[in-house]
Amino acid sequence: MESTDPVDMDEIPATPPDLIIEGGVALTMAQDPGLIEHARIFISGGQITDIQSAQTPSPLSNPETEVIDARDSIILPGLINCHTHTAMTLFRGLADDLPLKTWLFERIFPAEREFLDPETVYYGALLGCMEMIASGTTCFADGYFFQDETVRAAHETGLRGLIAQGVIDLPAPGVPDPAENLSRGREFIERWLHFSPRIRPGLFCHSPITCSEETLIRSMEISQGHHLPLQIHLSETAEEIQAILNKSGMRPAQYLDQLGLLNPGLIAAHALHLDEKEMDLIRERGVNLVHVPESNMKLASGTGPVSRMLRRGVNIGLGTDGACSNNDLDLFCEMDTAAKLAKAVEHDPTSLSAGEALHMATVGGASALGLQDYIGTLERGKRADIITVDLTQPHLCPLHNPVSTLVYAANGGDVKDVIVDGIVLMKNRKFTMLDPDPVMAKMREMAKRIAP
Ligand SMILES: [Zn+2]
Predict the structure, then answer these.
(1) Residue pair 161/139 in contact by the 8 Å Cβ criterion
(2) How far is the CA of 206 from the centre of ligand 1 (A)?
């Protein structure tokens, strides 16, 4: 196992830390791969103030300082889920093994129309946030309806999030009149813009076929006006390509470019059916893509030219999509799938490496959300969004290569500690902010109504 030169300073930084994580192998993702053995990470006011390599126990200057014992653990940046609909945990397992159109129009949309309200979205989002914390996700990008409730759930659980109001030119949950979708979206942004440094509001256009040209253009204008990214589903199905071709004579990426939507502020999920010109356009315009392999596989939507896009230099984050097309929110599984699927599709074991999968779930995700100056790596000055993975389990032994272990052997259940903004949200697999039992009890009760 290679390691970078240790920063050999056994001293406390100028600001006394309120949290120290020490003892494990840190995978900083700041270099390639940026390994520090016997790591000691100092955190103060939610910020990483120093990262050292130190063999001796920490000389604590302050008895109030909390210490996370990370011996026999890998310490890494919290994972970033760049595409999900968190409250859809409500419908996990409700409809599986169906064609996308049947699944969406005959099962999911009717269930959403009937059961979504502020209370169900709140509990669905709360459960999803807890699931993400328990599997090592510290930041998520979400698009749905009744999003005040997703903001509330993220805030109460302590997660960081880009939480967007869904925009669709059809009657939607909470927005029965599509003529109001943009004004409701703008109000949502204004309501939450200065609420918390961990929460960024935004808009999520459902797709180029369910949103009109005017809706797409206005959504981008509103987002840019607030310096916020805009999220969208792009090129998820072959049918979408044909519909846009019929409507505009252009393929979806060209169509969005002509409307002025292709720019670094666009986060496009799926991006499966792209031709060479579209891939070049996406790279030239600096659009951020989100790879969602498990949902794409489950709905048989396609596989996507992920490794070809990476070779072109396109920034790609990783996402789970909602819990009824995956059916979990575990980014460890998603990294494993991303790396293996690319190999299977391209008949090339070098097409997408474990390191590239981990990069997508951390550094790539942070850049996709415009948060690269704050999160995605473990570095002095960044926000302390950090997880530890417990290595004292048979399937994670021995440790020849931490990146390989994380991507190909670990799963979300191996995450031991989760810290967001310097606040410990899970310690030794115990939630610190909320008790999951009443949340799950409430969800079981609501499930009886959804599928009696
Ligand atoms: Zn989606």
Answers:
(1) yes
(2) 8
- Residues with CB under 5 Å of ion ligand 1 are 321
Domain residue ranges of the chain, discontinuous segments joined by +: 79-368
User: What is the rounded CA–CA span in Å between residue 339 and residue 106?
Assistant: 33
Distance 444 CA to ligand 1 centre (A): 24
The rounded Å distance from CA 143 to ligand 1 centre is 8
Range of lowest pLDDT (106-110, 340-344, 392-396): 106-110
**pLDDT at site 77:** 98
Map tokens 């079981």 to a residue: 444
User: Residue 310 above 80 pLDDT?
Assistant: yes
The confidence band for 451, taking pLDDT boundaries of 50, 70 and 90, is confident
CA angle 309, 312, 314 (to 5 degrees): 60
Q: Specify the pLDDT at position 62.
A: 76
Cα of 124 from ligand 1 centre, angstroms: 16
Span from the CA of 142 to the centroid of ligand 1 (angstroms) = 9
Task: Compute, in angstroms, the gap from residue 208 CA to the centroid of ligand 1.
Answer: 13
Which CA distances in Å does 55 have to 49, 71, 97, 102, 416? 19, 11, 52, 58, 22
- Tell me the CA–centroid distance for residue 372 and ligand 1, in Å: 23
E strands, 9-122, are 19-22, 25-27, 35-36, 39-44, 47-53, 66-69, 73-77, 79-84
pTM greater than the 0.85 cutoff: yes
Tell me the average pLDDT across 424-431. Answer: 98
Q: How far is the CA of 83 from the centre of ligand 1 (A)?
A: 6
pLDDT tens track for 83-105:
999 999 999 999 999 988 888 88
What is the full DSSP assignment across 238-259? HHHHHHHHHHHSS-HHHHHHHT
State the CATH class of domain 79-368: alpha beta
Radius of gyration in angstroms for the set of CA atoms belonging to the chain, rounded to a whole number: 21
The CA 98 to ligand 1 mean position distance, Å, reads: 16
User: How far does residue 240's CA lie from ligand 1's centre (Å)?
Assistant: 14
Contact between 369 and 143 under an 8 Å Cβ cutoff? The reply is no
Beta strands 423-427; 430-431: pairing state: antiparallel
Does 56 score more than 90 pLDDT?
Answer: no
Q: How far is the CA of 439 from the centre of ligand 1 (A)?
A: 24
Q: What is the mean pLDDT of residues 250-274?
A: 97
C-alpha–C-alpha distance, residues 249 and 275, integer Å: 15
Kindly give the distance from the C-alpha atom of residue 214 to the centroid of ligand 1, in angstroms, as a whole number.
Answer: 22
- Among 33, 25, 30, which residue's Cα sits nearest to residue 48? 30
Average pLDDT score, the chain = 94
